[in-house]
């Protein structure tokens, strides 16, 4: 019987060979036979024993491998490996003494110490490195211009940090890059960057990648995403990035490859890919590109509960990347697919706005940057939000359709959307959970959209004319279609006003007839491109006037940048807190005034966005991670994708068997024949039966007994039964896991199930208004502001002046600016925009100028309203305009008339006072006065009365 030590040696031999090493016994050694040679049981100097493996690189000794049996801890044998590295006989040629590369391995677990690193520390590695890699580390060629010896390893070069000067970074981005480089310099294997949505995480990562390549000579950097759309977006970020040294683009200096096949360009310094493709590459399989477009977090991730198996692939060695940036790393897919990440001997850098407990655990609580939404709002990097609720009776309670000879309901095919009408023989009762899945209540959708339209310009965005860019989240593709039609109808607008943007955008279903078994005609379903790309629609939504409204399921849920967005409407429930925060985060992006008005002409500036909650998503308990959906709540497509990605979980197979059984009962003989043909002769019933059998514990025992050759009545052990069970589950899912065509036919068959169309029930609005939470937030904010004013009225100059009766001195712009900076400073982080919206939420009838671009002088209006000096809160500029109109009327009534040119200058003076509280003679030398002739011209127009006129206007308008 093979001993545990021998099993470990056999596994180590196999692993070394896979990494390109020639494994030899010491009595038949030929160190020139390959670039890397591993010699077993090599004798060392007296007192040092034998090295289990001595590693030769280019005919010189370079390292050792200390072998241990499986299960033995390895950190305790590091000293032994170091002893071997120092015990090489003098006559043996070596790259350096002691030897630099030390491995300890059981064949299952391997640890590695690189003594070339500045502070050598052992680390766990998935596999042995290739000989060429060790040779490259040994070369240590200094780069041109280096005056001192350059460290030979990436970990050493990271320590030689360069100043972060000349980079166009926000303060938060600068801190993130600096902190990450400190973490890398300390050789921390994992680092987490938490930055609010819209604060430039990808730009930060590109900056870090550029510096790692330029200053630390990183051989290759991986940027990992979980959706094709996010990969394309990351590629654009790299392409647009300007390096600080000479203004060239990143891609002019370094090759950046976005993988669309399984071949990595050998000269690529940055590789962008999805985790789906990377997994397939490690498995040596081609990937169906369609599997990259949907996030596995949104589909199969909750069903793949065990880490997917990963084996060593010599074409992609573990040292292939120096650093791996993991975009949107909060997604549960990354903890479930952790072996894909841990495969590489590289530093992992996570990027997210919404980390979960699992995220912190995976990155070992090494949070190098924390920059939340509130801080981003205070810094002007994000805009804040309000919550507006629309509650309807059917949304919350469902409805019923009475039976009767005259009552009919529509039955709609989910896929073709063809409708047939049927009598209601029995009363149909449905709850809110059935809406838009099994039953479509036509008036419920219209009532929600109609209410949004009616409240849009009176309560949500008062005073506006153009419909703000609105994103609506639907439950599924069919629901999205219904919403699009309702929006176009309720707003009375055409197709371009509202568009559906989902993963299915741009594909059309084509059904053809062909001969099946026995000459019977069967349908074949294929999908073809319509020439419309979801990316193009996204671009229009982002950059053009139309569409004003976009309806999606989850394509625009995370990572997609749509800066002009002002309303995010939820018509679907969300159970994951992280997913909700990501969906909500689509609205936080800031946008320049000119860019914003190019898309939404009547908007002055984007000051906030509104969550329109139509399903109570802001009021329900949300979990930290996406819960595992079970039984009928799991989408059928998610079950199929789970087995496609290797899941043999019993719950998945059980749910899948039940779903297939129900589908079979609903299908016509022609459809079943089509499925059998796609399954290469196996019927749907046979596949279902195989899944059920693979879950039978008694059959597991029978299989284990047969495989082990045990006699009847002899019970196999737990390990044998578990192995047999896994083998049976693998066999059962094989027809589905390996057959893309069959999965497509099954999905098509499932989509053909019918929905009931309730065109009878009439919905009613229960509530439409800002949420209690929004009012509480507003009340807390205004209360804190008013307390702050009261507590500091004797300390801050602007408050002293505003509280004085009569004014002790004229209020100066510098004093107002100091007040604004004081209230914006942490921990308050208040802005005039946020305070204005808070008062508007509480006292809508007494607040004017909603949505206006706030001037700094509006702080004066806020203070006067908060201290009850004014009954109405209105922009300071409006008050100045009113006073100017009164002053002008009094002048004309008294016989003091002004020419047209004088009036134009007076209006410019009025506007300057509105923004600066005061005008002085020196101000005429600047815009907009300078363009009209400046001080010389204004003096010509008003003559000697200019100075007295300015004093009069300053006193009257800014009082």
Structure description:
The chain has 959 residues and is of the alpha/beta class. The chain has 6 domains: 136 residues, tt1808, chain A (Alpha-Beta Complex); 207 residues, P-loop containing nucleotide triphosphate hydrolases (Rossmann fold), CATH 3.40.50; 228 residues, Rossmann fold; 94 residues, no CATH class; 104 residues, no CATH class; 79 residues. The chain is built from 36 helices and 29 strands. The strands form 6 sheets. It has a 7-stranded mixed beta sheet, sandwiched between helices. Helix 24 packs antiparallel against helix 26 and helix 34 crosses helix 36. About 3% of the residues have low confidence.
Topology:
Layout: H1 4-18, E1 22-25, E2 36-43, E3 50-57, E4 60-67, H2 78-86, E5 101-105, E6 110-114, E7 123-125, H3 131-139, H4 154-158, H5 171-185, E8 190-195, H6 201-216, E9 221-225, H7 228-240, H8 250-253, E10 255-258, E11 268-274, H9 275-283, H10 290-293, E12 323-327, H11 333-336, H12 338-342, E13 347-352, H13 357-362, E14 367-371, H14 373-378, E15 384-392, H15 393-397, E16 399-401, E17 404-413, E18 419-424, E19 428-430, E20 439-441, H16 442-460, E21 470-473, H17 477-491, E22 498-500, E23 507-515, E24 521-529, H18 534-543, E25 549-552, E26 567-570, H19 577-584, H20 593-599, E27 608-613, H21 636-644, H22 650-666, H23 669-678, H24 684-693, H25 697-708, H26 718-737, H27 740-751, E28 754-758, E29 765-770, H28 772-792, H29 797-803, H30 813-824, H31 832-842, H32 858-866, H33 876-893, H34 900-916, H35 934-942, H36 946-957
Helix pairs in contact: 5-6, 16-17, 21-22, 22-24, 23-27, 24-26, 25-26, 28-31, 33-34, 34-36
């Amino acid at each position: 019987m093979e001993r545990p030590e021998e099993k470990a040696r056999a596994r180590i031999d196999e692993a070394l060979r896979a990494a390109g090493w020639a494994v030899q016994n010491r009595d038949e050694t030929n160190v020139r036979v390959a670039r890397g040679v591993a010699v077993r049981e090599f004798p060392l100097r007296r007192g040092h024993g034998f090295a289990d493996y001595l590693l030769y690189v280019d005919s010189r000794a370079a390292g050792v491998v200390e072998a241990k049996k499986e299960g033995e801890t390895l950190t305790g044998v590091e000293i032994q490996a170091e002893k071997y590295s120092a015990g090489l006989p003098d006559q043996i040629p070596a790259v350096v003494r002691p030897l630099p590369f030390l491995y300890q391995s059981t064949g299952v677990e391997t640890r590695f110490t690189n003594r070339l690193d500045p502070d050598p520390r052992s680390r766990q590695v998935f596999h042995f490195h290739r000989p060429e890699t060790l040779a490259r580390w040994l070369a240590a060629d200094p780069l041109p211009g280096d005056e001192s010896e350059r460290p030979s390893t990436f970990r050493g070069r990271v320590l030689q940090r360069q100043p972060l000067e000349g980079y166009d970074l926000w303060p938060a981005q600068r801190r993130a890059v600096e902190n990450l480089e400190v973490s890398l310099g300390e050789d921390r294997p994992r680092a987490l960057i938490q930055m609010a949505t819209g604060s430039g995480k990808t730009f930060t990562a590109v900056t870090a990648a550029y510096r790692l390549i330029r200053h630390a000579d990183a051989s290759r950097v991986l940027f990992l995403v979980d959706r094709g759309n996010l990969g394309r977006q990351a590629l654009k970020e790299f392409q647009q990035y300007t390096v600080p040294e000479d203004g060239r683009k990143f891609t002019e200096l370094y090759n950046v490859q976005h993988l669309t096949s399984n071949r990595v360009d050998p000269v690529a310094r940055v590789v962008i890919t999805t985790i789906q493709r990377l997994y397939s590459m490690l498995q040596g399989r081609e990937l169906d590109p369609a599997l990259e477009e949907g996030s596995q977090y949104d589909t199969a991730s909750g069903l793949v509960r065990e880490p997917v198996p990963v084996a060593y692939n010599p074409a992609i060695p573990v040292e292939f990347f120096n650093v791996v940036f993991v975009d949107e790393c909060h997604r549960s897919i990354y903890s479930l697919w952790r072996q894909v990440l841990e495969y590489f001997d590289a530093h992992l850098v996570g990027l997210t706005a919404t980390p979960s407990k699992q995220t912190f655990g995976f990155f070992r609580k090494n949070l190098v940057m924390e920059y939340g939404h509130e801080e981003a709002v205070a810094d002007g990097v994000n805009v804040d939000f309000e919550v507006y609720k629309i509650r309807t009776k059917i949304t919350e309670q469902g409805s019923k359709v009475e039976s009767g000879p005259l009552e009919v309901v529509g039955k709609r095919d989910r896929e073709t959307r063809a409708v047939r009408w049927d009598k209601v023989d029995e009363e149909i009762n449905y709850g809110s959970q059935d809406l838009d899945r099994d039953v479509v209540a036509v008036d419920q959708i219209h009532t929600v959209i109609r209410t949004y339209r009616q409240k849009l310009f009176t309560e949500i965005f008062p005073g506006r004319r153009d419909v703000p860019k609105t994103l609506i989240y639907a439950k599924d593709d069919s629901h999205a279609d219904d919403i699009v039609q309702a929006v176009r109808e309720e707003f009375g607008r055409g197709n371009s006003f509202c568009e559906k943007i989902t993963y299915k955008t741009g594909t059309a279903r084509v059904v053809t007839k062909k001969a099946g078994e026995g000459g019977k005609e069967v349908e074949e379903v294929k999908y073809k491109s319509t020439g419309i790309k979801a990316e193009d629609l996204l671009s229009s939504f982002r950059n053009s006037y139309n569409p004003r409204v976009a309806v999606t399921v989850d394509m625009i849920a995370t990572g997609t940048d749509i800066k002009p967005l002002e309303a995010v409407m939820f018509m679907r429930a969300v159970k994951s807190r992280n997913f909700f925060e990501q969906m909500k985060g689509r609205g936080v992006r800031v946008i320049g005034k000119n860019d914003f008005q190019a898309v939404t002409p009547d908007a002055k500036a984007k000051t906030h966005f509104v969550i329109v909650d139509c399903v109570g998503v802001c009021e329900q308990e949300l979990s930290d991670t996406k819960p595992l959906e079970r039984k009928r709540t799991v989408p059928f497509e998610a079950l199929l994708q789970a087995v496609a990605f290797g899941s043999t979980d019993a719950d998945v197979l059980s749910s899948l068997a039940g779903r297939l059984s129900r589908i079979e009962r609903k299908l016509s003989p022609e459809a079943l024949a089509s499925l059998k043909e796609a399954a290469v002769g196996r019927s749907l019933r046979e596949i279902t039966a195989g899944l059920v059998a693979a879950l039978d514990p008694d059959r597991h025992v029978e299989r284990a007994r047969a495989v082990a050759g045990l006699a009847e009545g002899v019970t196999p052990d737990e390990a044998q039964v578990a192995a047999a069970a896994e083998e049976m589950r693998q066999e059962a899912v094989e027809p589905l896991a390996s057959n893309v065509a069959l999965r497509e036919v099954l999905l098509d068959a499932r989509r053909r199930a019918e929905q009931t169309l309730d065109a009878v029930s009439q919905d009613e609005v229960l509530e439409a208004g800002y949420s209690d939470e929004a009012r509480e937030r507003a009340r807390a904010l205004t209360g804190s502001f008013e307390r702050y004013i009261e507590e500091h009225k004797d300390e801050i100059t602007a408050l002293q002046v505003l509280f004085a009766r009569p004014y002790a001195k004229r209020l100066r712009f510098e004093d107002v600016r100091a007040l604004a900076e004081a209230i914006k400073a942490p921990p308050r982080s208040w802005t005039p925009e946020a305070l204005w919206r808070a008062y508007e939420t509480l006292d809508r009838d007494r607040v004017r100028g909603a949505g206006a671009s706030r001037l700094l002088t509006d702080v004066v209006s806020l203070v006067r309203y908060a201290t009850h000096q004014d009954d109405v809160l209105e922009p300071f500029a409006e008050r100045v305009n009113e006073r100017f109109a009164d002053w002008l009327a009094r002048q004309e009534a008294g016989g003091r008339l002004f020419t047209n040119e004088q009036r134009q200058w007076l209006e410019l003076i009025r506007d300057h006072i509105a923004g600066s509280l005061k005008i002085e003679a020196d101000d005429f030398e600047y815009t907009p006065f300078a363009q009209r002739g400046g001080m010389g011209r204004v003096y010509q127009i008003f003559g000697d009365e200019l100075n007295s006129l300015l004093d009069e206007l300053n006193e009257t308008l800014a009082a």
